[in-house]
Amino acid sequence: MKKVMFALCGLVFGVVAANAQAAQPSNNAVATEQTAQQDDKVKIKAEELPQTVKTALEGEEYRGWLINAAYHHKTADTFEVELKNGAETKTIKFDKEGKKIS
Predict the structure, then answer these.
(1) Residue 21 domain-assigned?
(2) What angle do CA 87, 92, 98 make, to 5 degrees?
(3) Does 75 fall in a domain?
(4) Structural domain boundaries enclosing 81
(5) How high is the pLDDT of residue 2?
(6) Between the CA of residue 40 and those of 37, 43, 79, 81, what are the distances in Å?
(7) What is the pLDDT of residue 42?
(8) What is the per-residue pLDDT across 6-46, written as a single tens digit (0 to 9) for each?
(9) What's the CATH code of the domain at 51?
């Protein structure tokens, strides 16, 4: 009976140890996707923004806000603008027609 119990305990231990060493799902796919999304984001000067985006930024909604940084997402052909008003900052995305993207 002792031999059966030892064999059973050894089998259970072997299964638990094998499961503990099973490969965990890799986060590399997510990291690669995020890197790819960031790679198409190119920093540009505020003067390089399309006139439609500049016109949108001159509207009442953004009065008092200054452009801190601007980026062009080449694959999506969109623009990301970091605005600053004193200590406050916000990031707005625009399409090439100057329409705000949620």
Answers:
(1) no
(2) 135
(3) yes
(4) 41-102
(5) 75
(6) 6, 10, 11, 15
(7) 96
(8) 676 666 766 776 666 655 655 665 555 555 555 689 999 99
(9) 3.10.450
Q: Quick check: is 24 in a domain? A: no
- pLDDT per position as a tens digit, 49-58: 999 999 999 9
Number of domains composing the chain: 1
Give the span between the Cα atoms of 102 and 99, in whole angstroms: 10
22 part of a folded domain: no
Is 78 within 8 Å of 50 (Cβ atoms)? no
Q: What is the pLDDT of residue 5?
A: 72
Using CA atoms, how far residue 88 sits from 69, 76, 84, in Å, is 14, 27, 6
- CB count in 10 Å sphere of residue 83: 18
The torsion angles phi and psi of 12, rounded to 5 degrees, stand at -60, -45
pTM of the entire structure? 0.61
